[in-house]
Amino acid sequence: MHRIFQEHPDLFSRLSDVLGVNIPQPTSFTVLPNDLTETRPLERRLDTLLRLETEDDEPFLLAIEAQGKKDPNKHASWAYYASYLLNKYRLQPLLLVVCQDRATAEWAAREVSFGPRQWPLLTLRPMVAGPHNMPVITNPAEVRKDLALATLSAITHATNPKAEVILKAMTNVLRDTPAALANPIIELIAQGLGKHPAAEIWRKLVAVDLSFYKSPLSEEIRDEGRAEGETRRAAQDILDVFEVRGIDVPEAVRERITSCDDPETLRRWHRRAIIAPSADEIFTDE
C-alpha cells in the first residue's frame, strides 16, 4: 500500500486529482529515510504540565507556556509537544499560553495549520491568557473573591497604566491574608513582573504595606535597606574624619565617597582618611 509510491512518486499527483484535491504538480521527487527514531537525546521542556481530572471522568493534560515575545519557531514546538503528550499519556492535551504583551498574546492565539493549504494535516489552536482578555482587577473586594486569578491578572497586566492601582489592591488584601498563602503570592508577583517598571512598584508596596511579612522578597528588601543605611553611615564617617581634621573635601571626592556602595572599599577609605594629607589621597592605588 505504500511501496508503490517509492517506485512511482509521481503517482501522488494523479491520486490527488482522483480524490479531488488541487495540489500543485511536483517537479521532482526524493525518497527520504523512513526511520523517525531519535538517535540522540533532544531536550524539550514545557514550562508546566498538569493532569486534570474532570467530573465526567475524561481527564486531560494541560500544558502551560509563558511567552514573552513572538517566536516563529514556537508553533512547531507546540505542535510537537501536543503530539508527544498524546502519544505518551494517551490523554487529550490542551495548550495554555500566558502573555504580558497584547501583540504577543494575539499572535499566540491565532490558529496555525500544518500541511499543504489544500489539505491541512494538523491545526494548532492554543488557549491564551493575556492583557487582551484578562480582567483588570483594581477593587480589593474582587481580589478577595479569587486571589489566584487576581494574581495572574496582576502579572499579565504588568505594562498596564493602572499597574500601581492593580498591585495596591493586591497588597490591601494580602495584609489580611495568612502568611502561608500570602508569601508565595508575593514571590510569584515579584517573579512574574520580571524587569517591567511595575516590578519596582511592587517592591515598594511590599516594603511599605507588607513590611511585617517574612517572605523572601520582604527579607530581601529589608536587607537592602539595612545595607544601604550602613553604607550611608560609613560614607558619612569618612566625611566626618575630614571635617574633624579640617581637610577640605572637593565636590568630586564627596560624590565618589557618597555614591560608593561597597562596604569594604568604604572601610579602606576610612582608614586612609585618618592619615591622608588631602581628601583625594584616600583613593591612592585604587
From TrEMBL:
This is Transposase (putative) YhgA-like domain-containing protein.
